[in-house]
Amino acid sequence: MESAVAAIFEILSFGAIIILVVLGLGIIASMMGIFNFAHGEFVLLGAYTVYLFYGWGLPIALGMVAAPFVVGGLGLVLERTIIKRFYAAPVVAMLGTYALGVIIRESVRGLIGGLYHAVPEPLIGSIDFAGVHFSRWRLAIIVITILVMIGSQMLLKRTSFGLRVRAALENPALARASGISTDAIYAVTFAFGAALAGLAGALVVPVFSLFADLGLRFLIQGFLAVMLGGVGTFEGPVAGAGVVGVVSAALPWAVAPVLADVLVFVLAIIFIKFRPGGLLAGRSI
Amino acid sequence: MTDQRNDAAWATSRRRFLQNTAATAGAVATGVGNWIMRPNWANAAAEPIKVGIATDLTGAIGFAGNADANVARMLIKDLNDQGGLLGRPLELYIEDTASNESVAVTNVRKLIQRDKVDVVLGGITSSMRNAIKDTIVKRGKTLYIYPQLYEGQECETDIFCTGPTPAQQCDTFIPWLIKNGGKRFALPSANYVWPHLLNAYARKVIEANGGEVIFEEYYPLDQVEYSATVNKIMTEKVDVVFNTVIPPGVGPFFKQLYEAGFSKRGGRLSCVYYDENALNINAPHEIEGLASCLDYFRVLTKTDPVSARIQAEYDKEFPGNILFAAGAAATGMYRGIVLWAAAVKEANSVERAAVAAALDHAKIAEGPGGPAEMVPGKRHCKMKMYTAVAKSGNYDIVEASSGLVDPKEC
Amino acid sequence: MDDKVAVAPRITEPLEILKARKGIERRPILPIIELSVLVLFAVLPLIVADYLTVFFTRVLILSLLAISFDLVWGYAGILSFGQALFYGTAAYSVALMARDLGITSIFIVLPAALLIGLVLSYLIACFLLLGRRQPTVIFVALGTLTGAYAADRLARGWYYLGGQNGIPSIPQMTLGSYEFDQGSVYYYLAFVMLVVVYAGCRFLVRSQFGLALAGIREQEARISFFGYKVQTIKTIVFSLAGAIAGLAGGLYAFHEGFVWPNMLGVILSTQVVLYTLFGGVGTLIGAVIGVIAIEVMSYILADNYQQIWPILLGVLLLAVIMLRPTGLVSLIVSERERIGDFEPSRGRRARWRWGR
Questions:
Q1: ipTM, 2 decimals?
Q2: C14-340 is classed in which CATH architecture?
Q3: Residue B187 with chain A: CB contacts under 8 Å
Q4: What pLDDT digit, counting tens, does each position of A59-111 carry?
Q5: Which of C142, C157, C343 is the closest to A88 by Cβ?
Q6: Among A149, B251, C12, C177, which residue's Cβ finds the most Cβ atoms within 10 Å?
Q7: Angstroms from A17 CA to nearest CA on chain C
Q8: What domains appear along chain B, each with residue ranges and CATH number?
C-alpha cells in the first residue's frame, strides 16, 4: 500500500515536470507553427540562471523567480532578430533553432566546465505522511505546475491580450486589418514560451543537477508529447506531456527499464497513427 | 530577390565564392597543422619524438579529456626541460575526439598519417577506444596506450591499458563494503558494457565473501526517474548499493535514495567511478558516507609527498575547474606517459616493436597514488588502490591496499 | 548584356516547361556545377595527401546519405528524420554478417545493405504513409524520428550488438582475395557508387515520374485528382531513398571498420537534414555540396579552434540558414533551375501548418 502511494506520487511529480517543460514548446508550436529545437536550451538557460544566483550567494528562490524573466527576455531578443525570419518555412525554423540550440548548449558547456553541478532546492526535506516520504520540493513542483497551467489558460482565454493572441493565430491578415500588431503578438508569445521553459529549468535543476545536455534530454520527449496531445490547442500538449511523463515513470515499475524506454515511443506513434489529431483533436485555442 | 539581381553583381558574388572555395581547397589540401610545444633548446639536427594525444576536448566528456590533455602538456614540458628523451626533443600533438566517434576517427587519422606520431595516448569511453584503436594499431601500426578505468578484456597486442580494471576496483573494495555495510547488495546499473562486465566480476567477489546480490538491473543511460528502483532497495532491505548508474541519472537517483531514508537507516552507497569531479553532482548530505575505490584521491596529497608534488604542479599550471582526478583518466594518462618514457629509454629507440617489448615490463617508482608496474605479457598495469569515503563533500581515505593490486586481465 | 530573350523551344522536357512558363531563359548553371564537382572528386586522390583521401571517402559516403534525404524531401515533400535508421541498420547488419558469418564479399554485402535499406524503409513507409487518411508532414517527421530514436536505444541496450560500444574491428570487404583497404581504391569505389546513384536519381527526377513527384510536393490534393496514386508514389520514393541510405551504411561500415549506436540515431538524422538544407534542397547536387561544406568546415574549425569549434560551427550554420534558407547552391544557381520553387510564400502558410 505504501509503495503504491509512493509510486503514484513519484509518477505524478515526474509527469508534472514533463508538463512544465513541454508547456512552452506546445504554446510556440500551436501559435506559430514552428517546432523550436532550441526549447531544451531555454530550459537549460533557466537552470543556469538559478545556478548563477546560487554561485553569487543569492537566495535560490530569487533565482527561480528571475529565471523566467531572463529567459523570456532572451527569447524576445532572439525572436526579433532570428526566429521571425523562419515563420514562412517551418522546416527551416527547425534547423535554424537547432543551430541556435547548438550554440547555446556548447557555450553553456564551456561556461560550466562540462561538469555536473548540484543546486540545492529551496525547500529541503520531506513530509512524512502515512509512512511515506513526500519530497517537499517535488510537491512544490506539482503545485506550481498546476498554478502555471491554470494561469496560462486564464491568460489565453479570459484576457483581452489572450483574445488578440487567438485572433492573430486564427486569421493573421484579418487581425492585422483590425489593428492588431501580429509582429508584436508573435514576439510576446515566443517570449512567453521561452519564459515558461526558463521557469521549468529553474524548478527542475535541484532535482536533476545542472549539466549542458539537460535540455537535449527532454527534447524528444517534448516533441512526442506535443504530437501525442495534438497541436493547435493549449490543452493538447499538456495532456500529451502528462501522458508521456506518467507512462515513462510508470512503465519501469512493470517492465524492464530498457524496454520501457522504447515502448513509450512506439506506443505513442501507434496511437498517433490511428488518431492523427492527437489526444485532443486540434481546435484553435 | 534573385530575379532582380543584375548580371554584374551576380557575377561578382559568384567570382568571390569561387575564390573563397579555391583558397579553402588549397588550405585543406596542404593540411593546416596544429602541433604544440617545441622546446627552444631543440636543435635542427635532433629529430623530435612525436607524442600524439587523442582525447575529448569538446562534448560531454570534455571535462575529462581536457584534464588528460593538460597532464600531457605538463609531462611533455617536464621531459623537455630535463633534456628530452634519448637526447631528442619531444613534440606534442593533441587532437580532439569530440565525444563523437565519427569525428574522432578523422582526427586520429591526422595524428597517424599527417603528423606520423610515435605513440598515441587517449580515448576515454570504451566506445571511443573501439572506434579509434584500429586506425592507430592496425592501420597505423602505432603504439596505443589507453588510460581510463574500464571493464577489462582489451587484450589486443600493442594496446596498453594504464587505468584500473574491475579486479582492481573490486578485490579489496568489496570485502571492505561487506564489513562496513552489510551483506545484501543491489547492483543498479547504466545499460552499457562497463557495468555489465564490472557487475559480473563484482558478483563473483560478493558471493565469495559471503554476500548476496538481491537484484541487478540496467537502466537507459539518460533515465532520470528512479522511484521504482529506490522502492525496491528500501523494501528488500538492501545494505549496500553498488552503483554504476552514471550522470545524468546518478544525481536524481542518489537524491531520491537519500529522501527515501536509505542512509538514515544505515545503508551504504558505493560507486567506483566517483572521484572529485563527481562530488559536485549531489549535495554533500545526500552522498554522506559514499564509498569509492580508485587509484588516486586528492586527499592523498596530505600523506604522500609524490602525489602532493604532482598535484601541486598540475594545480599551478592549470588552475580552474579542470581537475586532476582519477575518474577522468588523468592519473592513467600520467602513468601511461611516464611508463612509455621509461620504456623508450630502455629500448633506446621509438620503434614500435622495441618500445612495446620494453613497455611490457616497465615500472615507475613515482606516480600519482604510488608506484606502478606493467604486468609482463598482459599489457595491464598494477597500481595501488585506495578506498575512500565521502564526508561533508570531501574524501577521507579509509583503506589503502598493502601493495600493488593485480589487474587480472588477459 | 541582355539575354532575357524569350525562346519557345519544343516543350517536352519538364525543365523546359518551367522555363517557358516563366518566360525567361538562362544558361543552365546546374549541369556546370555537377560537372565541376564530378571532375573535382575524380582527380582529388591525385592531388591531396593520403589521409585526406580517406577523409573525402567519408564525404562521398555521407553524400549518398544526403542524396537519399534530398530525394524524399526535396522532390517528394516527405520530411524524413529517419534516414539514419536505414543507414545504421544496414551498417549493423553487414557488420554482423562479417563478424558472425564471415561474409565480406563485395558482391554480397553491398547488395545486402541495399536490400536491407529497401525492405526496412518499405515497411516504415507502409506504416507511416499508407492508410485511409493522409499523414501530415509533421507526423511523418516525428514517426521517422521515433523510429531512429527507438533503434538507437535498442542498439545501445542490446549486448549482442555491442551495446554502447558498438561493433569494432570489422573485417575488410573483399573481392575474391583482394581486401578493400582505406585509400584511393575505396575512394574510387565510393565515387563510382555515388556517380551511379546520382545519375539514376537525376534521371528519375527529370522524368515523368519526377514531374509527378514535384506535383506531389507542391500541391498534393491536385495531383491526386489527376489520378496519380499519391501514396504509392511516395512509398516508392521513400523505399528507394531507404535503399540508397542502406548502401551508404554498408560502405561506411567497411570503410571505418566500426559501427555504433550513433549511426542509427536522431543526431545523425538531423545532421543529414542539415547537410541537405545547407547545400540546397531539391537540386541533388546541393546535398553533395552541403556535405562537403559542413565536413570541410568542421575539419578546419576543429584544427584551428580546438576548444570552441562546435560553437563556431553552430554560428556558421545559423548564419547560412538565416541568410540563405534555400542553401548554398542558390548563391550561384537561380531559383528557377531547381525543379520547382521550394519556399512556400506567406500566402500558403496555412497549408504548412500542422493540419490539412
A1: 0.79
A2: Orthogonal Bundle (1.10)
A3: none
A4: 888 889 999 999 999 999 999 888 888 877 777 788 888 889 989 998 998 88
A5: C343
A6: B251
A7: 21
A8: 47-164+306-379 (3.40.50.2300), 167-294+388-400 (3.40.50.2300)
